[in-house]
Amino acid sequence: MKKMLKTYLLNLLTIALVFSSCKKFGDTNIDPTRSSNLDPSVQLSLIQLRFSGDLNVNERTTFMMTMPLVQHISGPYSNRWGGIYFRDPNIMGVLWEDSYGSDLVNAVDAVKRTTNIPDKTNLNAICRIMKVYNFARMTDLYGDLPYSEAGLGIKAKFDTQEEIYNSFFQDLKAARAQLDGSKDVVKGDLFYGGDINAWKKFASSLHLRLAMRLVKRDPAKAQAEAQQAFNEGVFTSNGDVCKLDHEDIQNPYEDGKGNIRGNGVSASFFNGGGIPGRFTTPFLDQLRVTNDPRMKYMVKYYVDIPGGNPLSRIDLTEPLVEKVGYVGVNPGSYIWDGYLSNVTVEIPGKGPYTALNNDQKAQPANFLLRFNAPFLHLTYSEVELLLAEATVRFGPSFGGTAASHYEKGVTAAFQQLSFFPGGPTVPANEISTFIQGNQLIAGREIETINKQMWITLFLNGPEAYANWRRSGFPNLIPAVGVSETGESLTIPRRFEYPFTEEEQNKENFQKVLPALGGVDSWTKRVWWDKE
């Protein structure tokens, strides 16, 4: 992986420089002839690497917004945007600005370059899948957006999310059918190394994920699309997961230098000397009430040293758990809220230490936040949990019972912790004991399944946020208190568009407002998030 990333570094820098001046959407719909010499396989590498390696996007979209919104983390001042619903379109707009300025314009361009090219049919199919994957993250957060005209050198119209999703399903089916192991060898693929069969499974599994988005809006279509995805062949083991193994580099904001090789989500926890995010009380309660053994693996205490490298932190877990148990931070609260008195503990091999308030708020384990931690794009655990829910909703046509899919999904979630360098291999008896104590209960299956999805999607904030909105579980209670903007406290349902879109694409922007009740508000819902 390191060799592949370094091999493409100079080429990625070239592409980044080509598009670095295109930060506004009105500028990024460029004529592809301006970059006619770019290699689409290198564009593929850049798209894949930036998705989880870009610090600017991942810090704001994941760490500042979606992880606090879905109540995975709380505590730092920089969690206030998603934690206390501090409305700031500039923060919400970073994904839009940066994605249309690089990832999406490259995806559209790479697809165009490889269309109807006989020796690039597999590359074309993979680029089409990546285009869907990147646009899915966008539309699931914002709703209607420029899709069909994106990258055409014009001020693009907004497509409705319904139109976009219909296009997603068509494109994924066509791309999967086009993939052929006897055709061109794909270079630059950082996800699967050009493995065509793996890409077929990823296309179908992504199809399943997107199909299940529609369970509230259009159950019949959700069922039909989910069934087709399953029939085509989704993930069947942890060996199929889509992940990117990052390098041990703390990414800076200057991605133009090529430093997007580390895990951008991990870097956001330690960027700028800030306080790393703490687990929320609801998340710890979920682990506690179910006797989840992941508590002892995922949840740790460390001497509070803002910034730096996670591997340099001093572990206080054993002595602090013995004295105070596992303590989280309430949603929407800062780490200094609920201030805890000092506790003196004995650190094995180091002697006595006085643990202060910040030391006594539980954090994600080092292995989860290493800069070379993998980013899990789509997992076997998620697929099996989706199949479990599909079976509950639509009947036994997905290759097993709801219970069997649920058990496979939970087992895979435990096992995927070993993907992380230094991560645990959870003993089989701990997994089976947990499953026996947390089986599906009639009438509450969907709730139980999606509470497990909430855990398995930890560190993938945008996807966890989307799954919570589509399923309604877990039942998150809005943060208590008064927001800094004076607005009523309710968990937002979408991201607002950036100001630059209203300024530079005003005519098309105004056409999308009626569907939002005339106001671009984050309390409105995207199309599939039917109330």
Automatic annotation (TrEMBL):
Residues passing through the membrane, by range: none
Which keywords label this protein? Signal
Signal sequence region: 1-26
Task: Quote the InterPro entries the UniProt record gives.
Answer: SusD-like_2 (IPR041662), TPR-like_helical_dom_sf (IPR011990)
Keyword Membrane in record = no
The answer, when asked if Signal is one of the entry's keywords, is: yes
**Top-level division of the source organism's lineage:** Bacteria
Pfam family name, one: SusD-like_2
- Protein name in the entry: Starch-binding associating with outer membrane
Q: What is the lineage of its organism?
A: Bacteria, Pseudomonadati, Bacteroidota, Sphingobacteriia, Sphingobacteriales
